[in-house]
Write a structure and sequence with these properties.
mainly alpha
C-alpha cells in the first residue's frame, strides 16, 4: 500500500489535465506541420517549448511525479543519441534534413523530443498502472505505442522532420521494425516507472539509464526481426 501511495504522489487532476493537454498540443502541432510541410524548425519549437514547460511545471508546483518523469526522459533521451546513430549511420535507414544543428547523428533537439515523449507515455503508463496493474498496463502501452507510431512517423515525414529510406518493410511512412521498436519501448515504461517510485535521485537516474539502453536494445532486436 505504501508503494502505491508513493507511485501516485503528484498524480492530481491538474497534472493529469496538463499532461494530456500537452500531449494533444504535440499531436495537433505535428498535424499542422505535416499539412503545411513547415520543415524541421517546427520540431525544434514544439520540442523546446514542451521540455521547458515540463521542467517549469515540476518545479513550480513541486510535483514529484512530473519531476521524476522529466529526469528519466532527459537521461534516456541523451542516451538515445546512440540509437539514432545506429539507425542513421549503421543500418542507413533514418534520414534527417541537412543544415540542422546536429549532435552526433541527430538534430540537437532530439534528446529533448525523446524526453517529452517518454514523459507523456510514462505518465499514461502511470494512469493505466493505477487502474489495471502493471501486467495489463504494459500490454496496453505496447499495443498503443505500436499503433500510434505509424501515424506520428507519417506526420513527421510530411512535415520534413525526418524520414526513412524505403529499403525495408513499411506501414505508411513507418518501417515495421520501428513499430516493433516503439512497442517494446512503450511496453517497458509501466514497470520502470514503478521501480522509480521512491524518487531518490540515484533511483531516478538509474531508471533513465536503463530506459536509454533499452531503447537501443529494442532498435537492434526490432531490426533483426523485421529489418
Amino acid at each position: 500500500m505504501e508503494a502505491n501511495r508513493s507511485l501516485i504522489a503528484g498524480l492530481d487532476k491538474r497534472t493529469i489535465n496538463a499532461i494530456l493537454i500537452s500531449s494533444g498540443v504535440l499531436v495537433g502541432w505535428s498535424l499542422i506541420s505535416s499539412l503545411l510541410a513547415l520543415g524541421p524548425i517546427t520540431a525544434s519549437i514544439i520540442t523546446y517549448s514542451l521540455y521547458g514547460l515540463y521542467w517549469f511545471y515540476a518545479i513550480y508546483y513541486k510535483n514529484p511525479l512530473v519531476l521524476r518523469l522529466v529526469i528519466i526522459g532527459t537521461i534516456a533521451g541523451i542516451l538515445e543519441l546512440a540509437t539514432d546513430h545506429y539507425l542513421v549511420d549503421t543500418i542507413n535507414s533514418l534520414v534527417y534534413p541537412k543544415k540542422e544543428l546536429m549532435i552526433w547523428s541527430s538534430p540537437a533537439y532530439m534528446p529533448f523530443a525523446w524526453s517529452n515523449v517518454i514523459l507523456q507515455l510514462g505518465f499514461i503508463g502511470v494512469l493505466l498502472t493505477r487502474k489495471f496493474g502493471i501486467p495489463k498496463a504494459s500490454i496496453m502501452m505496447g499495443l498503443a505505442g505500436g499503433m500510434y507510431i505509424p501515424l506520428y512517423e507519417h506526420l513527421a515525414n510530411n512535415a520534413g522532420w525526418w524520414w526513412y529510406k524505403n529499403n525495408t518493410q513499411m506501414v505508411f511512412n513507418a518501417p515495421v521494425y520501428v513499430i516493433i521498436c516503439e512497442a517494446l519501448i512503450s511496453f517497458s515504461l509501466p514497470i520502470l516507472i514503478q521501480h522509480a517510485e521512491e524518487h531518490t535521485l540515484k533511483r531516478t537516474l538509474s531508471i533513465g539509464i536503463i530506459e536509454g539502453v533499452w531503447i537501443l536494445i529494442s532498435a537492434y532486436v526490432a531490426f533483426s526481426i523485421a529489418g
